[in-house]
Amino acid sequence: MTKVYLPQVQENRQAGHDIDPVFLNRWSPRSYKTDAVPDEVLFSLFEAARWAPSGSNEQPWRFIFARTQEDRERFYPFIAEGNRAWCEKAPVLVLVLSKTISSRETHLRSHAFDAGAAWGYLALEATRQGLVTHAMGGFDPEKAREVLSIPAEYELHAVIAVGYQGEKEALSEAFQEREKPSSRRPLEETVFEGVFKEK
């Protein structure tokens, strides 16, 4: 089977071991077209996230999405100004949160770990569907909690821009310089056999 890599990925990324191209093709652009994402495509992302693994099958992740102008404008006040400069063109914004209390009414230690797995599944399915995603930690969780009426037992993790990739030239000059897939540390800096080893 022929492996297909996006042109900008070929220029900036190379795997050290054989993996599916979807892992390299997934990156975090900032330029978005305003084209709407069809329901069947958008909900396939959440369907993929639904099948992520979780501790004791608690499935603590939750997603609040905004795709109408009214709903997106509800999100904007709690997103950091630097992110708003580019993300307002994205047709869909998604807030990722997770329930911190288990079904047994105890603290769910793996809630954030599990939500991260669900976000990863969502991001990979988005790539498979021809979409791009960009997760943002730059937002005010408490303001988001208030605006979106989120109960205290949920922790807020990130806002994700979702849509079709736009032209780099549509961004400000500062963002254009950063509009390329990033590389990764070599495995020997993150994978250790037997005991921890700081490089």
UniProtKB/TrEMBL annotation:
SUPFAM superfamilies cross-referenced by the UniProt entry: FMN-dependent nitroreductase-like
Domain Nitroreductase as annotated: residue spans: 25-83
Pfam families membership: Nitroreductase (PF00881)
Cited InterPro entries: Nitroreductase (IPR029479), Nitroreductase-like (IPR000415)
Molecular-function annotations in GO: oxidoreductase activity
Keywords of the record: Oxidoreductase
Gene3D superfamilies named in the record: NADH Oxidase (3.40.109.10)
Entry-linked CDD domains: TdsD-like
UniProt similarity note: Belongs to the nitroreductase family.
Name of the protein in question: Nitroreductase family protein
Source organism: Brevibacillus invocatus
